[in-house]
Amino acid sequence: MLYLMRDACDLMLTPARMAAGVARTACQNPFSPLAYTPSSRAVAASCELFERGTRSYAKPTFDLPASEHVVWERPFCRVIAFGAPSAKPKMLIVAPMSGHYATLLRGTVAAFLDTHQVFITDWADAKQVPLSAGRFDLDDYIDYCIAMFEALGPDLHVMAVCQPSVPVLAAIARMEAEDHPLVPQSAVLIGGPIDTRHSPTAVNRLPQERSIDWFRQHCIHAVPWPHAGYGRNVYPGFLQLAGFISMNLNRHQSAHWDMFNHLVQGDGDSAAKHREFYDEYLAVMDLTAEFYLQTIETVFIEHAMARGVMRHRNEPVDLGAIRRCALMAIEGEKDDITGIGQTRAALDLAENLPAAKKAYHLQIGAGHYGIFNGSRFRAEIAPKIAAFMQQNAALLPAELPPGLADVTTSGSDAVAEPSPPAALFADRALSQGSASAELRL
């Protein structure tokens, strides 16, 4: 009912948005006398903010200086390749399935276009996937990861950003346990909630305070007609967006007030930056109910992976089986989503992986977003990732640009020393069809 009410409200506001657009045009068009009144800019700014604050945002585009083509596809995900096939090292970026689209990692992709053949997971909006495509849960997510690794291998390097760190690590552990020949050569886990008992954040504490029934009752809704996924139970993107905004409500209010002032003052550049950010931030997608609830229960409440009791298709997920795939953990000093120590726990749990194949980097001054995007990521983190992947390539690729420092340095960048396995694990909650994968390289 909540989903239906939301869609109905969106439709009812359509005439008001159209009227606001007309008024804005009248106050900005140089041929309109209203454009020369003292309050014209304020009225135009108010109309734009109203329109932007009440509409739904479409899925953004990557808009990068490289061609895009789909090389693998199933109902709930497709893999996009950037540029033509080349001899560069292959890097698969596993984007979060956490409400936002993969385009949130536009800057992450851009940082590696010159040095790697980059692929990224483009997860589907659950409300656009028909019920006939079947269900999608955490086990299916792990199946997808294994299938993608097989399709893109050999000599594949993987980067998991935030939420997918757990299923990516589980997929690698299952492949290692079966001595799979196409296990990735390295995996970089960025801000992944591997063990949320370390430095727990507000995001980690909520599942501990609520039962799984509370999440089922308050977070799950059926997709209404006329969406393609009509009848599918989902965790709506607009609910998750509300949670994101509530965590930093004052910051968002200040940003929109600044936007209003920029428009009134005629500061078009600052207004354009605001539009660019919020066009991405406010574009959200739904997650299947089964994926969301299984992730909450398995990762956040039960800490199954950390306790060594996680299973995939009734088979144990044992991180101790990881012996070949090198692991790098990256964390941010000011991350308020995934606290310090949560991602590094993966290095402790992979107790049989040689120390030379482990690396850790703590980015000083960076928050959650800053460890996979922005100036610090481009200048400090991306070079370390590229160097780590090069060091752990079975067949060394063509020379990378100079300046890629060796990750096995001292301090926060040190290779992790062997230590007793951490006791527990966890994650942050954030949805397969049966169609076969198709590789189109």
UniProtKB/TrEMBL annotation:
SUPFAM superfamilies: alpha/beta-Hydrolases. It holds the Pfam family PHB_depo_C. Residues 191-392 form the PHB de-polymerase C-terminal domain. Signal peptide: none annotated. InterPro entries: AB_hydrolase_fold, PHA/PHB_synthase, PHB_depo_C, PHB_depoly_PhaZ. PANTHER family: BLR0908 PROTEIN, POLY(3-HYDROXYALKANOATE) POLYMERASE SUBUNIT PHAC. This is Polyhydroxyalkanoate depolymerase.
